[in-house]
């Protein structure tokens, strides 16, 4: 699936930069264009792979390249005002070659939190291709303002996109490190998982033709009902079959698949799909009640089989209670693993989102109270109600 990526804010820019790295490393060819948008000059300078003419500094009149702090209302405002400049960078992306747009942002801050929904809304007005969001939730130790920002942004972002894929930093934090220290490792995880999902449907030269290949339209159909989605991923190291030359095949060298026990191959796939679904999801949630799902199994051709995928698909139907579960393979030689990614689209039972909203509502009430109280206290301290006359 070919994507135009738009990274908004620091996290958004870094993750899009990493996507390009992933694309080059794996020859996945999913990134057709990439743009980074930010109010902070230093963040744009820190990027490596996004070309300089696609790094758009917005809000210069308002914040002079220093960022909006964690003020997402200001973030939304300045992005709205500078949409023309963002369109200028998007004009360089060949939209006729793009299957979808993906707007990436951390939802707890200012620029991405406020700006990503504004950009998504704009893209949907201008283009006919689907517009997806990849929203990153803050760690719970980041503080009330980040939670409040994330809850407000999530609510708005999900309304403006065709589907919002969510990654929760809190669920992926290593116990031994703060969220900040772990970002590099977390970003690797993000691009590995979402990269594999979006790679499906792009068959590379030199790889075998899949038995039941996943097409971009299946990803689009799975995401098409809207709402919030999450991913599960699992892989297992394998000894890949040696690719035989034409001669050995013509001389009766047999089929590679013959050398692999099909029961092992099937069992490997079914257990990987279980692990991916029941293990740590990008946004932890209850699997039951998922509206639609898609599973993709990637690996060298002889290590993929239809039986494994069919069984896994049925199992996933039982787990989700959904009648709309798609599945297929993505042949990929040379990775040394069989990997599976499970997309749960339109999830309905997500304790983390409920908790986020609850904490955000409390944070909003606290903020209003504190603001009210400090006005009173300041008036008390400075005695604004006394008879002393100010200078002017
Ligand atoms: P912005 O530049 O104002 O949009 O704000 P940031 O992107 O710096 O931060 C917003 C949120 O994104 C933070 O609350 C963090 O939870 C998260 N974040 C920041 N940097 C990264 C990163 O590199 N990776 C991930 N996964 N999350 C990040």
Automatic annotation (TrEMBL):
This is Tubulin-like protein CetZ. PANTHER family: CELL DIVISION PROTEIN FTSZ-RELATED, TUBULIN-LIKE PROTEIN CETZ. It comes from the Archaea. One of its GO terms (molecular function) is GTP binding. Involved in cell shape control. CDD domains: CetZ_tubulin-like. GO terms for cellular component: cell division site; cytoplasm; microtubule. Residues 365-382 have a biased composition (Basic and acidic residues). GTP binds at residues 10-14, 110-112, 142, 169, 187. The keyword Cytoplasm applies. Keywords: Cell cycle, Cell division, Cell shape, Cytoplasm, GTP-binding, Nucleotide-binding. It is found in: Cytoplasm. The lineage of its organism: Archaea, Methanobacteriati, Methanobacteriota, Stenosarchaea group, Halobacteria. The keyword Cell wall biogenesis/degradation does not apply. It comes from Halorubrum lipolyticum DSM 21995. Belongs to the CetZ family.
